[in-house]
Specification:
Layout (H helix, E strand, L loop, with lengths): L4 E2 L12 H14 L11 E4 L4 H13 L8 E7 L8 E3 L4 E4 L2 E4 L2 H10 L3 E2 L9 H4 L2 H7 L4 E7 L4 H14 L6 E6 L4 E3 L1 H16 L3 H10 L7 H14 L4 E8 L1 H4 L5 E9 L1
Parallel strand pairs: 1-5, 2-9, 3-8, 3-9, 4-7
Antiparallel strand pairs: 2-12, 4-8, 5-6, 10-12, 11-12
Helix pairs in contact: 1-2, 3-6, 6-9, 8-9
Length: 274
Protein backbone atom coordinates (compact mmCIF):
# COMPACT_ATOMS: atom_id res chain seq x y z
CA UNK A 1 0.00 0.00 0.00
CA UNK A 2 1.39 3.37 -1.01
CA UNK A 3 1.12 6.45 1.16
CA UNK A 4 0.71 6.90 4.91
CA UNK A 5 -0.81 4.06 6.88
CA UNK A 6 -2.92 4.77 9.93
CA UNK A 7 -2.22 1.92 12.33
CA UNK A 8 -4.89 0.76 14.81
CA UNK A 9 -4.64 2.47 18.19
CA UNK A 10 -7.44 0.79 20.17
CA UNK A 11 -6.94 -2.82 19.08
CA UNK A 12 -6.33 -4.93 22.16
CA UNK A 13 -8.28 -2.58 24.39
CA UNK A 14 -11.57 -1.44 22.85
CA UNK A 15 -11.75 -4.57 20.73
CA UNK A 16 -9.59 -7.71 20.45
CA UNK A 17 -6.18 -7.29 18.88
CA UNK A 18 -5.87 -10.90 17.75
CA UNK A 19 -7.41 -11.30 14.26
CA UNK A 20 -8.98 -14.67 14.96
CA UNK A 21 -10.48 -13.61 18.27
CA UNK A 22 -11.71 -10.34 16.75
CA UNK A 23 -13.41 -11.99 13.80
CA UNK A 24 -14.97 -14.63 16.04
CA UNK A 25 -16.33 -11.99 18.42
CA UNK A 26 -17.85 -9.93 15.62
CA UNK A 27 -19.38 -13.00 14.00
CA UNK A 28 -20.87 -13.93 17.37
CA UNK A 29 -22.47 -10.48 17.68
CA UNK A 30 -23.84 -10.78 14.14
CA UNK A 31 -25.36 -14.19 14.83
CA UNK A 32 -27.21 -12.73 17.81
CA UNK A 33 -28.66 -9.85 15.77
CA UNK A 34 -31.77 -10.43 13.65
CA UNK A 35 -31.51 -10.01 9.90
CA UNK A 36 -32.19 -6.36 9.19
CA UNK A 37 -33.01 -6.69 5.51
CA UNK A 38 -34.34 -3.59 3.78
CA UNK A 39 -36.34 -3.33 0.53
CA UNK A 40 -33.56 -1.25 -1.00
CA UNK A 41 -29.80 -1.18 -0.63
CA UNK A 42 -28.85 0.86 2.46
CA UNK A 43 -27.32 4.29 1.87
CA UNK A 44 -26.58 5.17 5.50
CA UNK A 45 -26.18 3.35 8.77
CA UNK A 46 -25.89 4.76 12.28
CA UNK A 47 -23.67 2.76 14.61
CA UNK A 48 -22.29 3.28 18.14
CA UNK A 49 -18.61 3.59 18.98
CA UNK A 50 -18.00 2.32 22.50
CA UNK A 51 -15.81 -0.68 23.18
CA UNK A 52 -17.26 -3.86 21.72
CA UNK A 53 -17.97 -5.17 25.21
CA UNK A 54 -20.50 -2.38 25.65
CA UNK A 55 -21.88 -1.54 22.20
CA UNK A 56 -20.81 -4.39 19.90
CA UNK A 57 -24.16 -6.13 20.17
CA UNK A 58 -26.00 -2.95 19.19
CA UNK A 59 -23.59 -2.19 16.34
CA UNK A 60 -24.12 -5.70 14.98
CA UNK A 61 -27.76 -4.87 14.22
CA UNK A 62 -26.69 -2.14 11.78
CA UNK A 63 -23.96 -4.23 10.20
CA UNK A 64 -26.22 -7.24 9.82
CA UNK A 65 -28.40 -5.06 7.57
CA UNK A 66 -25.45 -4.81 5.15
CA UNK A 67 -25.00 -8.54 4.66
CA UNK A 68 -25.29 -9.54 1.03
CA UNK A 69 -24.48 -6.06 -0.26
CA UNK A 70 -21.25 -4.61 -1.59
CA UNK A 71 -19.93 -1.05 -1.96
CA UNK A 72 -16.89 0.29 -3.74
CA UNK A 73 -16.47 2.93 -1.03
CA UNK A 74 -17.49 3.47 2.58
CA UNK A 75 -17.51 6.99 4.02
CA UNK A 76 -17.21 6.94 7.81
CA UNK A 77 -18.11 10.20 9.56
CA UNK A 78 -16.87 10.44 13.14
CA UNK A 79 -16.93 13.12 15.81
CA UNK A 80 -13.65 14.25 17.32
CA UNK A 81 -13.18 13.34 20.97
CA UNK A 82 -9.64 14.58 21.49
CA UNK A 83 -9.10 17.57 19.20
CA UNK A 84 -11.11 20.69 18.48
CA UNK A 85 -10.84 22.24 15.02
CA UNK A 86 -13.34 24.19 12.90
CA UNK A 87 -13.43 21.83 9.93
CA UNK A 88 -13.63 18.22 8.74
CA UNK A 89 -10.37 16.25 8.72
CA UNK A 90 -9.85 13.96 5.72
CA UNK A 91 -7.24 11.19 5.72
CA UNK A 92 -6.84 11.49 1.97
CA UNK A 93 -4.06 9.05 1.01
CA UNK A 94 -2.69 5.65 1.88
CA UNK A 95 -4.60 3.20 4.03
CA UNK A 96 -6.06 2.34 7.42
CA UNK A 97 -5.06 -0.89 9.09
CA UNK A 98 -6.87 -3.07 11.61
CA UNK A 99 -6.00 -6.56 12.86
CA UNK A 100 -8.16 -7.84 9.97
CA UNK A 101 -5.96 -6.17 7.34
CA UNK A 102 -5.58 -2.95 5.40
CA UNK A 103 -8.25 -0.76 3.83
CA UNK A 104 -7.12 1.46 0.99
CA UNK A 105 -8.22 5.07 0.89
CA UNK A 106 -10.43 6.24 -1.98
CA UNK A 107 -7.99 8.98 -2.87
CA UNK A 108 -10.14 10.28 -5.71
CA UNK A 109 -13.19 10.91 -3.55
CA UNK A 110 -11.11 12.37 -0.73
CA UNK A 111 -9.37 14.72 -3.17
CA UNK A 112 -12.72 15.84 -4.59
CA UNK A 113 -13.93 16.75 -1.12
CA UNK A 114 -10.75 18.67 -0.30
CA UNK A 115 -10.99 20.59 -3.58
CA UNK A 116 -14.73 21.20 -3.40
CA UNK A 117 -15.07 22.99 -0.10
CA UNK A 118 -13.06 24.94 2.44
CA UNK A 119 -14.69 23.00 5.27
CA UNK A 120 -12.22 20.15 4.71
CA UNK A 121 -8.62 19.95 5.91
CA UNK A 122 -5.91 17.50 4.93
CA UNK A 123 -4.40 17.75 8.41
CA UNK A 124 -4.66 14.18 9.66
CA UNK A 125 -3.55 14.69 13.26
CA UNK A 126 -7.14 14.43 14.57
CA UNK A 127 -7.16 10.82 13.31
CA UNK A 128 -4.12 9.79 15.34
CA UNK A 129 -5.92 8.85 18.56
CA UNK A 130 -9.59 8.92 17.53
CA UNK A 131 -11.49 5.76 18.43
CA UNK A 132 -14.92 6.53 16.97
CA UNK A 133 -13.88 5.97 13.36
CA UNK A 134 -11.56 3.02 13.89
CA UNK A 135 -14.12 1.10 15.95
CA UNK A 136 -16.38 0.77 12.87
CA UNK A 137 -13.77 -0.73 10.57
CA UNK A 138 -13.51 -4.37 11.75
CA UNK A 139 -17.30 -4.72 11.49
CA UNK A 140 -17.18 -3.34 7.94
CA UNK A 141 -14.34 -5.69 7.04
CA UNK A 142 -16.34 -8.65 8.35
CA UNK A 143 -19.66 -8.02 6.61
CA UNK A 144 -18.58 -6.45 3.30
CA UNK A 145 -16.37 -7.52 0.41
CA UNK A 146 -13.24 -5.36 0.04
CA UNK A 147 -13.98 -1.63 -0.22
CA UNK A 148 -12.13 1.67 -0.25
CA UNK A 149 -12.44 4.10 2.65
CA UNK A 150 -13.12 7.82 2.93
CA UNK A 151 -12.50 8.66 6.62
CA UNK A 152 -13.89 11.96 7.91
CA UNK A 153 -13.66 13.47 11.41
CA UNK A 154 -15.79 16.49 12.32
CA UNK A 155 -13.88 18.91 14.54
CA UNK A 156 -17.07 20.73 15.45
CA UNK A 157 -20.74 20.06 14.82
CA UNK A 158 -22.42 23.41 14.23
CA UNK A 159 -25.39 23.52 11.82
CA UNK A 160 -23.41 25.24 9.07
CA UNK A 161 -20.70 22.61 9.02
CA UNK A 162 -23.29 19.83 9.08
CA UNK A 163 -25.13 21.34 6.11
CA UNK A 164 -21.95 21.98 4.13
CA UNK A 165 -20.68 18.45 4.74
CA UNK A 166 -23.90 16.87 3.50
CA UNK A 167 -23.87 19.08 0.40
CA UNK A 168 -20.22 18.30 -0.30
CA UNK A 169 -20.92 14.56 -0.14
CA UNK A 170 -23.90 14.91 -2.45
CA UNK A 171 -21.73 16.75 -4.94
CA UNK A 172 -18.74 14.42 -4.73
CA UNK A 173 -20.37 10.97 -4.70
CA UNK A 174 -20.87 9.94 -8.31
CA UNK A 175 -22.72 6.64 -7.75
CA UNK A 176 -24.72 6.75 -4.51
CA UNK A 177 -25.77 3.11 -4.88
CA UNK A 178 -22.11 2.11 -4.65
CA UNK A 179 -21.24 4.23 -1.59
CA UNK A 180 -22.21 3.63 2.03
CA UNK A 181 -22.12 6.38 4.65
CA UNK A 182 -21.59 5.36 8.29
CA UNK A 183 -22.45 7.88 11.02
CA UNK A 184 -20.58 7.02 14.24
CA UNK A 185 -22.27 8.12 17.45
CA UNK A 186 -23.21 7.23 20.98
CA UNK A 187 -26.23 8.88 22.60
CA UNK A 188 -26.60 10.33 26.11
CA UNK A 189 -23.72 10.03 28.55
CA UNK A 190 -23.63 9.37 32.29
CA UNK A 191 -27.25 9.85 33.29
CA UNK A 192 -29.34 7.46 35.32
CA UNK A 193 -30.92 4.83 33.12
CA UNK A 194 -34.45 6.21 33.32
CA UNK A 195 -33.34 9.72 32.30
CA UNK A 196 -31.07 8.34 29.58
CA UNK A 197 -33.88 6.23 28.15
CA UNK A 198 -36.17 9.26 28.00
CA UNK A 199 -33.58 11.46 26.29
CA UNK A 200 -32.42 8.73 23.93
CA UNK A 201 -35.98 7.74 23.15
CA UNK A 202 -36.53 11.20 21.70
CA UNK A 203 -33.43 10.86 19.53
CA UNK A 204 -34.63 7.47 18.34
CA UNK A 205 -38.06 8.92 17.54
CA UNK A 206 -36.65 11.84 15.58
CA UNK A 207 -34.15 9.70 13.66
CA UNK A 208 -36.94 7.27 12.80
CA UNK A 209 -39.07 10.16 11.54
CA UNK A 210 -36.12 11.62 9.62
CA UNK A 211 -36.89 14.89 11.39
CA UNK A 212 -33.47 16.46 10.93
CA UNK A 213 -34.59 19.98 11.78
CA UNK A 214 -36.04 19.11 15.19
CA UNK A 215 -33.21 16.75 16.04
CA UNK A 216 -30.64 19.43 15.23
CA UNK A 217 -32.47 22.01 17.31
CA UNK A 218 -32.80 19.72 20.31
CA UNK A 219 -29.15 18.69 20.12
CA UNK A 220 -28.06 22.33 19.97
CA UNK A 221 -30.28 23.18 22.94
CA UNK A 222 -28.95 20.27 25.01
CA UNK A 223 -32.39 18.71 25.31
CA UNK A 224 -30.99 15.46 23.91
CA UNK A 225 -27.44 14.19 23.52
CA UNK A 226 -25.39 12.43 20.87
CA UNK A 227 -21.62 12.89 20.76
CA UNK A 228 -21.82 12.17 17.03
CA UNK A 229 -24.88 14.32 16.46
CA UNK A 230 -23.12 16.17 13.66
CA UNK A 231 -22.23 13.00 11.76
CA UNK A 232 -25.78 11.71 12.21
CA UNK A 233 -27.36 14.93 10.96
CA UNK A 234 -24.98 15.19 8.00
CA UNK A 235 -25.63 11.56 7.04
CA UNK A 236 -29.40 11.97 7.31
CA UNK A 237 -29.32 15.16 5.23
CA UNK A 238 -27.19 13.35 2.65
CA UNK A 239 -29.77 10.55 2.51
CA UNK A 240 -32.60 13.06 2.14
CA UNK A 241 -30.73 14.69 -0.73
CA UNK A 242 -30.63 11.31 -2.47
CA UNK A 243 -34.34 10.79 -1.92
CA UNK A 244 -33.65 7.94 0.50
CA UNK A 245 -36.33 8.71 3.05
CA UNK A 246 -36.96 5.39 4.77
CA UNK A 247 -35.43 4.77 8.19
CA UNK A 248 -35.46 1.52 10.15
CA UNK A 249 -34.54 1.69 13.83
CA UNK A 250 -32.78 -1.58 14.49
CA UNK A 251 -31.70 -1.50 18.14
CA UNK A 252 -31.41 0.75 21.18
CA UNK A 253 -29.66 -0.19 24.41
CA UNK A 254 -27.41 1.39 27.01
CA UNK A 255 -24.36 0.33 28.96
CA UNK A 256 -26.45 -0.56 31.99
CA UNK A 257 -27.87 -3.48 30.04
CA UNK A 258 -24.34 -4.89 29.96
CA UNK A 259 -22.92 -3.85 33.32
CA UNK A 260 -26.08 -4.02 35.43
CA UNK A 261 -25.27 -0.53 36.75
CA UNK A 262 -28.12 1.87 35.95
CA UNK A 263 -26.71 4.80 37.92
CA UNK A 264 -24.65 6.20 35.04
CA UNK A 265 -25.12 4.87 31.52
CA UNK A 266 -24.24 5.59 27.89
CA UNK A 267 -26.83 5.11 25.15
CA UNK A 268 -26.32 3.25 21.87
CA UNK A 269 -28.35 3.21 18.65
CA UNK A 270 -28.28 1.25 15.41
CA UNK A 271 -30.35 2.38 12.43
CA UNK A 272 -30.36 2.06 8.66
CA UNK A 273 -31.54 4.51 5.98
CA UNK A 274 -32.52 3.34 2.50
Amino acid sequence: MKGPVRAPVIAGSWYPGDPGVLRSEIEGFLRQAPAGKTPRKPSVIISPHAGYQYSGRVAAHAYRALEGFSYSTVVVISPSHRAYFPSVSVWAKGAFETPLGGIVINEGLCAKLLEASGIFTGNTRPHDAEHALEIQLPFLQTVLPPFALCPLIMGQQDPGLVRDLSRALLGAVEDPDDVLVVASTDLSHFHRARQAEAMDGEVVRLVGALDVETLGRKLSAGEVEACGGGPVLAALMYAQGLGRNEVKILKYAHSGHVTGDDSSVVGYLSAVVY
